[in-house]
Amino acid sequence: MILSIKWKLFLVGCLLFCAMLGIQGGSGLQASNVSLTIAQVHYGGGGDWYGDATTIKNWLQLLRTRTGIETAKDRVILKLTDHTLYQYPMLYLVGHGNIRLTESEVEALRDYLTRGGFLFANDDYGLDESFRREMRRVFPEQELQPIPNTHLIYRCFYELKGLPKIHVHDAEPAQGFGLFHDGRMVVYYAYNADIGDGLEDADVHPDDTPRVRELAAKMAVNIAVYALTH
Fold it and tell me: So what's the pLDDT on residue 2?
């Protein structure tokens, strides 16, 4: 189900209003302009943080055309310790292998998430063990929680039956997980789904059918809309 035009305009207004009210000095999210930009995390340690080179560009275009939200044209790449971190309401993390955050990155990510930020982590296959380990360092008192298929993130813009499985990789089902702070989901982790690959330019993964790519697009729009309104 697609939301009404009135609701789309309300979303845009909320985004612009929040951007203009940004708090300076690292005490909360801020924005240097009113265009939404999604930042890809260049994390320390192993893992191919640089993957999905066209994912965010296409994700931002989807948001412009389907929701009316004003966005930048392409991704920004940053380290969690960069002083510009708080300019971005959403972060994207991707990888296959054994990622590891430095102590400074762990602290920076915890502060960012507890002050209003949101992280979408995409399992490019093989990320699970190390991502769970690093998230336990960020939030030592909790584990990633399964997100039920009835959760609002799967129906806040498009009606989905749950997290779509884009790349087979193995026979395990796709599963969404989350971390929460003060009742707000601050991390959404797409396990065994590979939404990011489904958003890449069509020639990057030519075996992905239009149907599969559309499912990835709808899930990506839902993630962004949910993050910007909660």
Answer: 40
Q: Using the predicted structure, report yes or no on whether residue 215 has a pLDDT greater than 80.
A: yes
Contact yes or no for 185/222 (Cβ under 8 A): no
CATH architecture label of 5-22+30-229: 3-Layer(aba) Sandwich (3.40)
Distance CA 214, CA 154 (A): 14
Give residue for tokens 């039920």: 148
**Sheet arrangement for strand 184-191:** 76-78, 38-41, 90-95, 118-123, 184-191, 175-181, 145-146
pLDDT mean over 198-207: 87
- Could you give the CA distance from residue 63 to residue 148 in angstroms, rounded to a whole number? 24
Residue 89 DSSP SS3: coil
Q: How far is CA 195 from CA 44, 92, 121, 185, 190, in A?
A: 23, 11, 10, 19, 7
